Every structure is written in structure tokens, then in C-alpha cells.
């Protein structure tokens, strides 16, 4: 494995835009005639299991839950507009693809970019859905990292978003 991400069995991690996943097993498997290290994940939000090569899981955004310092920095930057603004093109592919990487910065960029759009016009269904999904994912990550209830994490995020709008 060439990445700094080293999943351990039983660990709960962020799995890209899919949300949280618990590492069920890590084993060497033969797929398409090649031997590779695979990780079996239980994706909590989707209530499903998936097995894929570790490298592919990392490409799809498998990462440890962010630290409280990282989350505080992102929450601090959001109302100040210190995030990467991404234009919503015709089908929103740029924003959706950026969010799909699953990195913490991508969540803040997505929320910030959609809040920019919301400040000048009503969000369409796809924009509203993506904003809600990003808010939910960030709320879950805040709650997990700070060891607080989801309601409290949601209030914290909404307080920051309210300061932005």
C-alpha cells in the first residue's frame, strides 16, 4: 500500500461521498487473475457491504475521520469565504465530482459554493440535494470527531452557515 491511509479492522472511516464505513476485513485476494490487498467495508449510511482493492478504496475517498483541529479550521474558514469556489455548470458535474472525492476540504468547498449560489438565487433540486447531503456528512463527521450528539453538531454547523448567509 503506497498511501498514508492504513485501515484497521473495526475502524470507522470516511468513505468518500458514501459516508461512514466500518472496516470489516483486510485480506489478500485474487481478482481478475491478479493478487491484491482488498478491504471489505460496511457502508453504514447505505447499510451495505463492499469489497474492493485498498488502492481503489483510497481513490474513492477512504480516509480517517478528521481531527477536531481540521474541522475547527474548516468551520472557521467557511463564513469568511476561505474555500475553493466551484462554479455550478449546467449539470453540476464539477461540484458533484469535487464532493465525490470525499476529502474534508471538498465538503467545505461544496457547502461554500452552494451557499454562494443560494445567496443569489433559489437552489434547484440537484443543488439542494447535494447541499443537504454534504451538510449531513459534515454533521456526522463533526459529531464523531468531537464526541458530541448529532443535534449538537448540527447546531454548530448551522451556526456557522447562518453566519455565512
Describe how the helices and strands are arranged.
Layout: E1 12-15, E2 20-31, E3 34-43, E4 48-53, H1 54-59, E5 62-63, H2 68-80, H3 93-100, H4 104-120, H5 125-146, H6 150-164
Antiparallel strand pairs: 1-2, 1-5, 2-3, 3-4
Helix pairs in contact: 2-4, 2-6, 3-4, 4-5, 5-6
Structure description:
The relative contact order is 0.13. The chain folds into two domains: 12-63, Thrombin, subunit H (Beta Barrel), CATH 2.40.10; 68-164, Methane Monooxygenase Hydroxylase, Chain G, domain 1. α3 (93-100) packs antiparallel against α4 (104-120) and α4 (104-120) packs across α5 (125-146). It has helices at 54-59, 68-80, 93-100, 104-120, 125-146, 150-164, and strands at 12-15, 20-31, 34-43, 48-53, 62-63. The chain is built from six helices and five strands, in the order ββββαβααααα. The model has no long low-confidence stretch (mean pLDDT 90). Strands 4-3-2-1-5 form a five-stranded antiparallel beta sheet. The chain is α+β, with helices and mostly antiparallel strands.
Structural domain count: 2
Please bin the fraction of helical residues: 40-55%
| Overall pLDDT confidence | 90
Query: What's the oligomerization state?
Result: single chain
Q: What is the radius of gyration computed over CA atoms, rounded to a whole number of angstroms?
A: 17 Å
CATH architecture of the largest domain: Up-down Bundle
Silhouette? globular
* Element string (H = helix, E = strand): EEEEHEHHHHH
Amino- and carboxy-terminal Cα gap: 43 Å
Identify the CATH class of the largest domain.
Mainly Alpha
Strand content: 15-25%
Record the strand order, biggest sheet.
4-3-2-1-5
Amino acid at each position: 500500500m503506497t498511501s498514508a491511509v492504513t485501515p484497521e479492522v473495526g475502524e470507522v472511516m470516511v468513505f468518500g461521498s458514501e459516508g461512514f464505513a466500518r472496516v470489516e476485513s483486510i485480506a489478500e485476494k485474487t481478482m481478475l487473475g491478479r493478487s491484491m490487498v482488498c478491504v471489505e467495508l460496511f457502508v453504514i449510511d447505505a447499510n451495505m457491504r463492499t469489497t474492493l482493492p485498498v488502492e481503489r478504496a483510497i481513490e474513492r475517498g477512504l480516509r480517517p475521520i478528521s481531527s477536531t483541529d481540521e474541522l475547527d479550521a474548516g468551520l472557521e474558514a467557511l463564513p469568511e469565504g476561505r474555500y475553493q469556489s466551484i462554479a455550478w455548470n449546467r449539470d453540476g458535474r464539477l461540484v458533484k465530482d469535487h464532493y465525490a472525492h470525499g476529502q474534508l476540504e471538498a465538503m467545505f468547498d461544496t457547502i461554500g459554493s452552494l451557499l454562494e449560489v443560494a445567496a443569489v438565487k433559489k437552489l434547484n433540486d440537484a443543488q439542494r440535494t447535494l447541499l443537504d447531503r454534504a451538510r449531513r456528512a459534515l454533521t456526522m463527521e463533526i459529531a464523531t470527531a468531537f464526541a458530541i450528539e448529532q443535534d449538537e453538531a448540527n447546531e454548530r454547523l448551522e451556526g456557522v452557515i447562518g453566519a455565512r448567509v
